[in-house]
Amino acid sequence: MSKLEIINDNNDFIVVNKTAGLITEKSLYENLTIEDQVFQHILKTKRKPYVGVIHRLDRVTSGVLIFAKKKSILSSFNTLFSSRKVHKTYLAIVKNKPSKSSGNLVNFLVKNTLEKKADIVKSKTKQSLNCRLSYKVMDQNDFGYLLEIRPKTGRFHQIRAQLAHIGLPIIGDEKYGSDQSYYPLSVCLHAWKLSYKDVNSEELITFEAPLPDNKFWKFKEVEK
Fold first, then answer.
1. What is the DSSP letter of 19?
2. Alpha-carbon separation of residue 168 from 105, 155, 160 (angstroms)
């Protein structure tokens, strides 16, 4: 069982570095989730813990995840997220060399419920959603190219689908065309940073999740 990695823990919320392989939210079909781990952690100091799920990460993705300890804090964060005042930065490793060192991707995405994936379509339809992100190449190692990604929208699997659409499937992401093996129930996608302005002080707050500790993620650029 993976140990809960805590980035920040205070009276209002807890920030953790999510382990790839586990889902975010409590489920009848899962023996262990990140929400379960957070509940057990808070139970050490509170008799009746409250755990509010503010946002989620895919099972295969690691990185910054915040849980509220109070209903009022959950409500405040929900407002921040819905008003797009929370900014996320992801890191991904792709095997193929990007044709450009940086770029903006704009696509139409359709959720493929049958195959549990996202499909990129050529033009707008009734079912499609606009999805946008920017990327830049940060570094390179023996396994591939490290991309810094800033999503402008929060669509289902959008980073995975949009990168695959331009011939850059994320390493380990067989669902989107990767032919390179990685660790079980994981892909090389990491929610690296999450930033927002404090409602009261207007101070910019940023939480950063350490990279997965394995050979794929050894890059000089992020070890500085």
1. P
2. 12, 18, 9
Q: Are 124 and 135 in contact (CB under 8 A)?
A: no
Taking the complete model, does pTM exceed 0.85, yes or no? yes
- Cα pseudo-dihedral 150, 153, 154, 158, rounded to 10: -70
Q: Rounded CA gap, 208 and 63, in Å?
A: 8
Cα angle vertex 160, ends 139, 37, to 5°? 95
For residue 120, the one-letter residue type is I
Six token digits for residue 218: 């050894």
What tokens were used for 125?
């339809």
Percent of the chain as helix, strand, coil, to the nearest 5: 20, 35, 50
Residue from 224, 77, 87 nearest 153 by CA? 87
Q: Based on the number of CB atoms within 10 Å of its own CB, is 3 exposed (0-12), middle (13-18) or buried (19 or more)?
A: exposed
Instruction: Name the pLDDT band for 223 (thresholds 50, 70, 90).
Output: low
User: How far is C-alpha 189 from the geometric centre of its chain's CA atoms?
Assistant: 7
Other Cβ atoms within 10 Å of 179 Cβ, number: 8
pLDDT digits (tens, 9 = 90+) for 166-216: 999 999 999 999 999 999 999 999 999 999 988 778 899 999 999 999 999
CA distance 67 to 7: 12
